[in-house]
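Continuing from the previous page of notes. For each protein in this section, the sequence appears first, followed by its structure tokens. Read the first protein now.
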Amino acid sequence: MQKTLTIKLCIIAGLCIIFAIGLTMFSSVIYERQSYADSVIAEIAEQHVYPQQVITPFIAIPTTITPECLLDAETQSVKCAAPYTKIDAIFAAQTQASQNLLVDTDTYKRSIYHATSYNSELQFKQRYSLPESSSNLSDSSKLSDLSELSKQDQQGIATAAVTADKNALRSSQAVSHWEQAKLIIPVSDLRGVATLPTVVINKQTIKATYPQNSMLKGLSYVEVALPDTVLTQLATQNLANSPTQTAASNSSKTSTVENKNQPIDMLIDLPLAGISSLNTVPTGQNFELTMLSNWDTPNFIGKALPNTKSFSADGFKANWQNQYLTVANNQYLSQCLSTANNQCQVISSAPFAAGSSYDEATIAVEAAAGSVDSINGSLNSFGVSFAEPNDVYLQTERTMKYALLLILVSFGTFFLFEIIKSSRIHPIQYLLVGCALLVFYVLLLPLAEQIAFWQAYAIAASACVGLIGWYSYYVLDSLKRAVIFTAILAGLYAAFYGILTTEDLNLLLGAVFCFVLLACVMIMTRKIDWYKAA
């Protein structure tokens, strides 16, 4: 008899191993379906719009640099490097950004698959404080078609240019092309900008345009031509800060001080569409972002979490403030934009891996090979990705972690009936019950792709419990035993679903459940004489 018991236990263990292999094979089906769903979402993004990443708007000013000429002591010849261009950037002294996002899962669909998309209203309220922000600009200025300048200002600029010419062999010269200054609004995928943004600059409304000739290499953006009054204000302030200003320009400084000290206020309304995630790269001195959305399961990403956040049935609200990140971004951007002949490019793109977790958004600052010294680093960003509350592949995978325990409990219950009630159960009957338990997972995944996960779980569990309960009546040859076994099986399915739905406590509840289950088995078998049973 001892040999018979050992053989029966070995058969049960062998069946468990076979079903473990079957579960592993079915796991590959889950990964295959998830990969296919990811490819469909990636195709949707390719044809419509990618996740979005927005850099805080800033002012860009093209500047021509004429390097200093050096006198060769041996040959007595003058060597002058070729002139080159660079971009001077002026960042806002204050920025209050707000993002109102309407998230939906019905906009982009392919068969049973869909992409989580959003339509947002972005608003940037900026203030540029010129005495602080323009101190790093070029020493001399070139102004064209700026009728607002006084004659004294123009005379001062001319005198400064003559002085620079006299010192041409000894010093370099920088000419800022103020007439070409633009407000830059970088967006990683411009397909999501259905209508060009409207910008209000000092109460003057201006429509953004697509750049005819891009001044920023590798960066997708829309631009706004600054009005003449703002250009004059920028140029006048730069002249006042210039060390090359003459007596003529000094005499005009008093007349323009009131104008130059006035801040420039901008209000930028940017409608934006995207999928999966939205990232913001803060720049300037004081940056604050407020985000509102109707999505109730956000996943905050990037290098900074919200300072404050709140959740409700209507969605969430989050607020970011981080001074260090904006200062670091200013340094990286300024360093890259100021390289000669636009040889450094800012690569702006939001991370996209459909169906997987989202890491921080990356904007790499890279230098063209062999052209300038390498600029290593990435711009800091933060934002939100819209996690699916009903990720059927993840939940099915988590459900399968308890599959082997379910089979062990079912086989163990049959085995106890054999020992305690002297029932005779053939290995083939064990095999059929195990197959019915395995079919539960085969039913669960395709049903969950069509309906809500809890509905799919309830249907698949009810079908398997009903089938096994009906079969156990004939296997155990007793209605009472069949009802007991069916109740145990139904309780297991209900307990496993309860553990799955408590994401924060699922490990703890799973451990407690295993302990309670083991305790019940030990209590039920405490009086069994296993030698006699064998």
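Done with the first. The second protein uses the same format. Note its length before scrolling.
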Amino acid sequence: MGDESFDWSEFLGRWQQEWVPGEAADGDDEQTAASLGSPGADDTAIAALEERLGRRLPPSYREFLAVSDGWHVDQMAGVYQLGGAADIDWFGDPYDLTSVYEEYLGDEPRQEDVLLAGMWRRALRLETDSDMSHALLDPGDCDQDGEWALYLYKGWGGEPPDRYPSFRAYMEAMYRSFHSTRVERADFVNATTRAQDAQVEAARLMVLRGRHKDAMPLLEEAFSFGRPRSATLLSQMRHLLNPRERRDYGFLAADPHYLPEILPVEAMAPARGEWRLGGDDHWLAMMSARGIDRTTAEAVLGAVRSGTHHYAPPGPWGRAVTEARESARWGATDAAWRVLRDALPLWETPGPLLIAPIGLLADSVLGPLITPERGREILATPRAGETGAVPEPVPDLDRPGLSWLAEAAVSRSPLGGYRCVWVEGIAPDRLPGLIGEEGAVLSTSTDRRDASWRAPRRREREDLEFWEDRAEVAVGRCVEGWAFAFDGHPGNLNKLFRSPAEAASTSGRAVVVWREPRRSTGGDQPAALHVSVAEQGHELYAFTLRGPGIQFSGALPEGLDPARLFRPEDTETDKEVRVLEALHTELGLSLPCFALTRGSLHGFTTRSWTRAPRAGETFAYARLVQRGL
């Protein structure tokens, strides 16, 4: 797009009128206030310049010179003064940067890298005063309007230059930089600052009305001018659109109105071990520097790290959060999200700087539910007393049944195996008493993305016998009313296996499924799949598939009889899927995929799934260790 409609006189006049020295200004800056620019160069001077250079200047730079023959630029950019028609000349690459950049082009360089490597010898140098920096117009990087790209090279930075598509784009960026570096000055108030602040307020209301897409560019523009509040509002929006990314909310966490929401969110990164520089002490010191009591910060960090932090807002929204958490902590994440979604209009902001329930992200149980799609739905939902169009609900994330377990990419099991116990008609918190090791109790809810699902290692527990195989299970309830205990990292399904179905079935039916993947260690061992069903402490039937062989006991129901389920051409995976589908159809079994792979669930350690070897029985186990390359 050309610059015909751009008014350089108005733009530069506004800049001149608004100019005040920066916080670190010296006497020279005070003198510069009288005139940032110079009278424009006439047509003769511009024509003489073009004849000397042997090139016609790009449109925006030519128009600029006609209005102001040079300009004093903000010192923060590294360039202090842009010369006039009599001052500029070809750069000539005095530091042989061409060789440096050509060395890194490689065999198949990108077009932008080729342009940059060739820029140094053909560029036009504009600055006459700088801090080891250069403003370079490149005639080789030209658009359809004849504009040359401008490269701002800061020699002291050791980094590639910043690229602007035109001289006009560079000057507009420097004008925004001029504003952002003076935003803390009490006397820096003008038409531009007032307009940008009004834009921030308009965008804030847009977000509360669900129009976050319209608000985003307004806030981004205000942020480029350094306007207060714009960064805080943008951080909240971007955090909900990318919930796993770390965000810094600055001094907002120290405000007592916002601390309950923001401080736990700030603690998420160090709680996950992502705060590398100085660890907890550095983070706590930073919070103290912001005015947050260290004891408070330590308590919040500890709660977030241990999985005990609960987001607890007041009012009807707070009651919905409590209801949703109770569903989510047992695996019903879709139902929990529907509760939150329906209650979102009831959310109330504790102050004008909070535009969304950011505190949800730090909740040990509800936080994992906020996917980018759901974060977008939060932003698109009118709330805090505002009205607007209601967005289409995002689809549920859990599929019915069990067949998703056969998809390694979904189950996230590195070996492809799993084992699970279902018990009909009981609350999940009763499972430790049925199949847990001595003294087993439910743990706090643990994020499945960060937790290890491996059972206790023999070398780390002196009370474990060499033959024992205890599981570290995640606990919940499936939609059909069965309580489950799931292990995504099982050991070997061997001859010492003892199904926990009988122990789990003292008050009703219990089902056990164990899938062991194909293993190549110690010879090619085919995959195995075991199913056992018990009731009132007695096994009703069971079968184990390993390769083409089938072992079974009891009277298998027709719907679960492998002889009826399988086809001759079925692969191991086909057989697994058919059994999983039959378990869902015949017994109503399911598992919540989202809760088990990305959610947060309680857990406990089970009794051993293997029995002690009998007299004369031999037994060995292998421990697989993955070493880095």
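What the second structure shows: The two ends are 51 Å apart (CA to CA). DSSP finds 23 helices and 18 strands in the chain. We return to this in next week's lecture.
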